[in-house]
């Protein structure tokens, strides 16, 4: 209790002796230091601008122009009118015309399309007989948010799709829709959001930790000077990189086990695919992220810069990968950026294996982008590390 009055007295004395001149000198010094630290200054300007652009232009919670394939068994004016109505709604973009039902199921499994519209045989005949035929709309419901609005719009198209086809003259009753749209939510028929979110968290958690931990740890060694002792050993830059990255790969394996256990036993997320295949794909993802952290450590001068650069990599990964917002709802330029990010392909791999039971043939198209990213980041990291040694 006696120390408190003494502390308050010292604080009051310091406040009475404040000098605006000395405060101004320290302020000028900080501005000069900030001007010298171009990386931090660039982050101060770049992060707000990136957030404004991404949230203002790229993010869309009501995705439209979703990739759709059609399987038409009744080639008639009525079938064409139905297809045109779906495309004119804005939610569906017809990109393929299939020759069989199995082809559409394979496309949904691979993630090539979000919807498959099937018009059955004798659709026109059933229309003219007032039998209210059904058209089947299969949806990839692994992401319920991406499909829900489009499915709601599709249910209303039955009232308007054939409004200009003069069905009333053929004896069809007016008022009731002439046909019905039957929606089939594949892979997640209940629309449970945890089935989409929890597997995606595996990639998000790894993206955050596997980039940040190596970047901060290696930058801390440079700050403390312990890296100089390592450089005195007869080791090559590649050997140093592999030796530094491997421990974090082991940490990533532990995180994978924890996330998968929680997903299975706490959230009851189904696992329809192969665990060995999933672990192999995650291993490539973890190695690419840890190498990215190593690359950041060769660029950053201190831990603050390393943290800033990690966040600059993590933010677009979160927003443009399809984790927080439907990927196909993004504009074309945002999708192009998202295709470069490892998290985008990891989300497709994890959801495909766990929710769809996809095999290697279905997830292989998403493995090659991860390998290319790993190769490019490794080459740049080794080049940057050699330049650091020369400097």
Order of helices and strands: HHHEHEHEHEHEHHHHHHHH
Mean pLDDT: 83
Uncertain segments of ≥5 residues (pLDDT<50)?
Answer: none
The end-to-end span amounts to 56 Å
Q: Rg to the nearest angstrom?
A: 28 Å
Class of secondary structure makeup: alpha/beta
Total beta strands: 5
Helix content: 55-70%
Largest sheet: 5 strands, mixed
Total count of helical runs of at least 4 residues: 15
Count of folded domains: 2
Overall form: elongated
Strand order of the largest sheet: 2-1-3-4-5
Relative strand content: 5-15%
Task: Describe the model.
The protein has 391 residues and is an alpha/beta fold. It has two domains: 66-186, 3-Layer(aba) Sandwich (abc type-2 transporter like fold), CATH 3.40.1710.10; 193-390, no CATH class. The protein has 15 helices and five strands. The chain has helices at residues 3-16, 20-36, 38-58, 77-88, 101-110, 123-128, 144-160, 193-224, 226-231, 237-265, 275-299, 303-320, 332-340, 342-356, 360-390, and strands at residues 66-72, 92-97, 115-119, 134-140, 180-186. Strands 2-1-3-4-5 form a five-stranded mixed beta sheet, sandwiched between helices. Helix 7 links the parallel strand 4 (134-140) and strand 5 (180-186). The longest helix is centred in the middle third of the chain and has 32 residues, at 193-224. The protein is elongated.
Key features of this structure:
391 residues, alpha/beta, abc type-2 transporter like fold
């Amino acid at each position: 209790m006696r120390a408190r009055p003494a502390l308050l007295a010292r604080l009051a004395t310091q406040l009475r002796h404040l000098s605006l001149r000395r405060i101004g000198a320290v302020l000028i010094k900080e501005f000069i230091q900030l001007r010298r630290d171009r990386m931090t200054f660039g982050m101060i300007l770049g992060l707000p601008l990136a957030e404004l652009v991404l949230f203002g232009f790229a993010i869309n919670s009501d995705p439209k122009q979703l990739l759709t394939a059609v399987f038409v068994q009744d080639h008639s004016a009525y079938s064409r009118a139905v297809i045109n109505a779906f495309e004119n709604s804005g939610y569906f973009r017809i990109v393929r015309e299939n020759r069989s039902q199995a082809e559409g199921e394979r496309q949904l499994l691979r993630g090539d399309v979000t919807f498959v519209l099937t018009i059955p045989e004798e659709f026109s005949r059933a229309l003219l007989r007032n039998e209210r035929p059904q058209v089947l709309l299969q949806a990839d419901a692994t992401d319920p948010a991406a499909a829900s609005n489009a499915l709601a719009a599709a249910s209303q198209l039955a009232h308007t799709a054939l409004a200009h086809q003069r069905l009333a003259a053929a004896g069809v009753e007016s008022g009731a829709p002439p046909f019905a749209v039957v929606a089939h939510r594949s892979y997640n028929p209940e629309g449970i959001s945890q089935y989409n979110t929890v597997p995606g968290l595996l990639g998000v958690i790894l993206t955050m930790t596997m980039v940040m931990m190596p970047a901060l740890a290696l930058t801390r060694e440079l700050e403390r000077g312990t890296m100089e002792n390592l450089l005195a050993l007869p080791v090559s830059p590649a050997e140093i990189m592999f030796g530094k990255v491997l421990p974090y790969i082991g940490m990533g394996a532990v995180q994978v086990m924890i996330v998968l256990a929680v997903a299975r036993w706490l959230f009851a997320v189904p696992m329809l695919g192969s665990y060995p295949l999933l672990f192999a794909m995650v291993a490539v993802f973890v190695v690419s992220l840890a190498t990215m952290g190593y690359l950041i450590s060769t660029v950053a001068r201190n831990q603050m810069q390393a943290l800033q650069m990690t966040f600059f990599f993590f933010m677009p990964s979160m927003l443009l990968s399809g984790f927080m917002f439907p990927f196909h709802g993004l504009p074309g330029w945002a999708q192009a950026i998202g295709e470069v990010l490892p998290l985008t392909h990891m989300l497709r791999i994890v959801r495909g294996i766990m929710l769809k039971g996809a095999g290697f043939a279905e997830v292989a198209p998403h493995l090659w982008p991860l390998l290319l990213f790993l190769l490019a980041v490794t080459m740049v990291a080794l080049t940057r590390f050699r330049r650091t040694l020369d400097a």
